[in-house]
């Protein structure tokens, strides 16, 4: 069992479920590890999420394997339960993709437990929408955080949203308390590879893995993933120019875009958000502003220094 070097009052702790498309890129792993090293969180479980079909037909299974690998490196595989989420997106807004991950959300939400429950989504929001459609009573028993969506007020292309627009619309029109950390905000989590080499790589097997898998992914994108995406698009009858991907990744930097879910649960950044009426999302991922009753928390700022320094400090405290 992981022992934290300090503790906080029990009344300040919260239950947390992490829903993660962990094998999509290289940033989910940092957020998962950061959360596991945080005394405030009582991690109820981790749900593996799909990340579409651009690169593979087995994205959820790959995420499941990656989550277990991270837990194994931290010697926590027997301590944290991992659940399989939906294998794919909703086919429409009336047909949920049920999964053991969605069932787990329902079961945890309906528990008689005084600790607040938060569910953090680092990829598509499929499993929350499915859980809500099966059991609407969960809406007033949890708070959801979602890394996803384009910038307010227009919206636009964003990867996590692209992977299940239907589910996002279900959640947006629900009554679930929702914190949205959109693309323009999560991209504030800018780090350099040199910074990670100094502050992450030296600290335990997990620190070395976090650093190395990001470096390796940098090469995999160029040498493997982009050619695969281009070929799969062509097989589906779509022409994709490889030059469309030339700007990503940039080479010496990355966005640890999933990490805000940790820091916002340590301090909710009251200066960093506004309550906004939930829009409807179109097929091309733009926002239609049609109502003023359903309000959600929309972030326009996250403190990247606070987030990163907390993660670095916890790695050093545990593995220094």
TrEMBL record:
Domain (Inosine/uridine-preferring nucleoside hydrolase): residue spans on this chain: 16-224
Bilayer-crossing regions: none
Source organism superkingdom: Bacteria
UniProt keyword annotations, A-Z: Glycosidase, Hydrolase
InterPro entries noted in UniProt: Inosine/uridine_hydrolase_dom, IUNH, Ribo_hydro-like
MF (Gene Ontology): hydrolase activity
Protein name, per record: Nucleoside hydrolase
Source organism (scientific name): Metabacillus bambusae
